[in-house]
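Researcher: Going back to the complex we discussed earlier. I've cleaned up the inputs and rechecked each line, so this should be the final set. Can you rerun the prediction on the complete assembly and write out the structure?
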Amino acid sequence: MDFFKDPTLYNLVRGPFVYLAFIVFIGGSIYRIKTFLDLVKKDKTIMPFISLKSALRSILHWAIPFYTVNWRRRPVVTIVTFLFHICLVFTPIFLLSHNILWRESWGISWWSLPEWIADIMTLIVIFSCVFFFLRRVFAPEVKFVTFDSDYLILLLSLMPFLTGFLAYHQMLLPHKTMVIIHILFGELMLIAIPFTRLFHMFYFFLTRTFMGSQFAHWGTRDW
Amino acid sequence: MAVKGANSSEKIISREFKEYVRDPNPDPGLDEAIKYLTPEKIEKAVNSVIGNITARIKAVMDTCIHCGLCSEACQWYLSNDKDPTYAPVAKMRMTMWELMKRDGKVDAEFIKQCARIVFTECNICHRCSMYCPYGLDITFIIGLVRRICFLLAVIPQRQIDQAEAHMATLNQVWLSQNDWIDSVQWQEEEVGADYKDLQIPIDKEGAEVMWLPLGAEPKTGPYHIERTAKIMMVAGVNWTVPGRDTWDSSSMSMFVRDFVTMQRIVRGLYDNAARLRIKTMMLTE
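Model: Rerun complete. Updated structure for the full complex:
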């Protein structure tokens, strides 16, 4: 880590903070899943009903757009939701800029997205966040159950992508400054995952397992 | 009927949620019952139900992303012109989320509002779970709030009346065991006039099938019993009815989350089955 030789802000966020972010994200997530599963085992009425086959069926049906009834009833929400999540997950993993950093630090690299595709995917994430924001403000059934924290996690999801896009295209602020802000937001988002509703990314598999099994026990599907 | 503003000019608007506007709906089960509540009783009841956060509660509370996609599943939401306060997630927000946020320190008026929402604006049908992208068990949360209201005896009068029938007689129509046997024997007489040797066995040990009627049948639809007897005779089924409680498999107690009576009902069914050594329980309801 260059930070200890050359203590600049860039080296701080590029070095120690990356370790911190990933340790908190991975360690925190494992801890949260483990404590949740411990609670599940304590409730003796859950495990006997869990069926792997129904769980997989449930997860599959909800992980494919337009497969379940509610996905079909809300085509716009469905399309935006799926595009948002796919681009959110795969852009950081296959971005060339990130790949270069991995190679600098650990000597490893993998396939990268063409830059223009990465740009489009980033813009998809940005516009999806705007869509979700508008939903929260203007759709009555969403507005009624929206809290400040909902806007915050939406902002937290938006900022790494917005600042990344601006940094790459060298807009608004000097490149190095924008990159530092981008890295900080990325780390903030990772750290926030085990502590906020962003953790739904893992809960999805657990709750779907439960409800898929529950409905299978009743002899039907969970749509 | 949920047509707002048709006849009454006076509306009820929730103190906590301004969008929650309803017609007044006087119900002694709610209005009279809350007079007996104290803040201590309320807090104690809430803590006994959600003081210890279990996996099921945590799963719903932590995962719900407040997306509102459950709304269009709910017939209450759809039939009330998509009023957002009828959405499943909204029902949770107005009851459980508020109870958790305030640690159970709420007043009697708030409990009455909760009772109105979870007893008369949700019928625990599970459609919301079918529309939720996570498959969250929203009805479980509604059921927990019903349990809190039950512990505080704040329940719509009609519902607690029906649950009391189960509490007192283990059936929904206030029949004593004698009344039940009388009804069965009366029906046997009625149909015996047309069919020779037709019997309705009561407490026949070793029968294949133990038949249980719809809860209301012995009182308000007894002819169903004689029709079943004819079917069983023609089909050649070796059947019986139990001669003692529990002969009614319905459970209004479940709707008000009366766990003790729920248990007594189910145990009574299985006790009869074990006592009579039958192979199959045939439930109408």
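Model: Worth noting: The longest strand of chain B covers residues 209-212.
Researcher: Good, that matches what I expected from the previous run.
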